[in-house]
Records
---
Amino acid sequence: MTAALCAAALAGTTAQAQNYPTRPISMVVAYAPGGSTDGLARIVAAAMSKDLGQQIVVENVGGGGGTIGTQKVLKSNPDGYTITFGNMGSLAIAAPLYPNIKFDPVKDLAPIGLVADVPMVISVSKKSGIQSLNELLARLRKNDGSINFGTAGPGSTGHIAAAMFLYVTKTNGTLISYRGAGPAIADLMAGTVDAVIDQTVTMIPIHKGDRVKSVAVSAKQRLPQIPDVPTFAEAGAAEFDLSVWNGIAAPAGTPPAVVERLAKALSNALKDPEVIEKFDKMAAVIPPPSEQGPKAFAALIARDVPRFTNLIKEAKIKAE
């Protein structure tokens, strides 16, 4: 009887997965609207919706370095109707940075796929008067903490990037936390903070709009989208090398067939000419097929959790 009940339950789950999806899907972005992750999520959600035949609704749940939104997804029913679009901040960095949070990215997630790898740009406000990375470094080397870096909050990629930049250049600045990259960038343009390091997705538009002065980009060569911005190596800080991966995951326990269906929709979305064009304008690099899919994304998360755990310890980065 027990075997029969198990078989019936399995058959029910399989049938449910085969019919998936039958209603809209919630895609939780663990950051405020207007940031890099939010921008990429909305592009991909629209393309995946067409493939799945059901709308993917983007829901922004910011705060806690991505932990609040991620935990909301992890507590949801693992049926494929609540997923998260995150980046290495919420899916690999937040857990070791917030030791009191009971969240294991390797065990508690069902990775769906890598979406894009995005370079980072460091920009300064027009009010700062800084014209180059060397000038910024000179100001930072005074070690008086007078240069303020706006970040998307503790544990965000912008926070880790700024802390890492100060660590590898052996300089001192003050990190100012916001509830997302959007508010931090708004204050950068207003001159309330002196500098922001964030993904090209948000930084290219404000650079082209001449709202800020971009002084370096984390790429091996200059980007054709912003050819006037030197690489960190060219600008005098070759020791800083960080780009941001973004991806989609579901709670652990989500049926494999559902994960595979979402992964297929994501793969098709990344082949969509409209998605490719939009990503290219933002210098977001779509991964090759060999780096797409659940297994490859799971391996990436498993590699980066210890990597960032070590960085957090070495650089003494705090969740504050």
---
Amino acid sequence: MTEPLDAVAEAIENELRLIDPEVRSSAPVLTTMLDPGYREIGTSGRLWDRDTIIAELTAEATTRPGPLTVSRMAGVELSPGLVHLTFDTEYKGRRSHRSSLWRLTGSGWLLYFHQATPFVDDPFTES
């Protein structure tokens, strides 16, 4: 069994890898990182599944933003093989709270669920 801190560290490493613009534009890599049952609630509120998010991220016409700034990433192993990550991102002044569920499968750690919620002011941010 993976130790909790190792599980969280692996999930964080994979999450940061998914944020990399090169990874996000590679269908073969995304296919190996997203669970077949993957679901996402995007910043717009749109619902995505694995196939539609991979198609959108890798489409020729997709505008590819630069790297996101990530802050306050934290994780907890909810049960053996299931890690919940929370973090914030910022790109060109647009900030989002994010939540991801990573689960350990026979293929390794795969992202199972992700949600991004835009925010302006955050009472939990230190001033």
---
Amino acid sequence: MSLQLGQIVPDFEAQTTIGPIHFHQWLGDFWGVLFSHPKDYTPVCTTELGEAARLKPEFDRRGVKIIGLSVDTLERHGGWEADIEETQGQAVNFPMIADTDRKVSEAYGMIHPLADPTVTVRTVYVIDPNKKLRLSLTYPPSTGRNFLEILRVIDSLQLTDRQKVATPVNWQPGERAIILPSLSDADAKTRFPQGWETKKPYLRYVTISE
């Protein structure tokens, strides 16, 4: 059964490339991104791990811990990480879970029998500090993940957790947000004294400087 948004994600203990972890304890008060790979030494995932490692300072800046997962062993993870550094010009700088018994994969719904019952699909989970699932994405084997989009979603989630706003299509940090329809104009005046642009009663654009 797949996880649903707002659900507290399963806790687990696992062996990783930085040693054993207790997942909820490892996350602590941070946001988290858990992303799975079908198996080690796969070409698309090799490029993804290199890019995730390159962007780690951006995740750090947002208070986000990243962690990968594959059903292969720690020994194979080590060999693959050497290949990643060689081919992508970036060493892997975050932990990788060795889910050899598939306990994590099954708990998180990463095994899709109609795709391949022996390996995990390529899934991304964004988890907030309350350990609740805020985003899940599943990619086809042939398409590399867009980590800039994952960062954009995290920016949106963190903004909308702080403010009574939503973010419109193609929103980027610094652009206008939308005041929630549930917030009256009177309450909005208190929250957004800078004012806003009303396109429709339910569509009010506001610029937020944080």
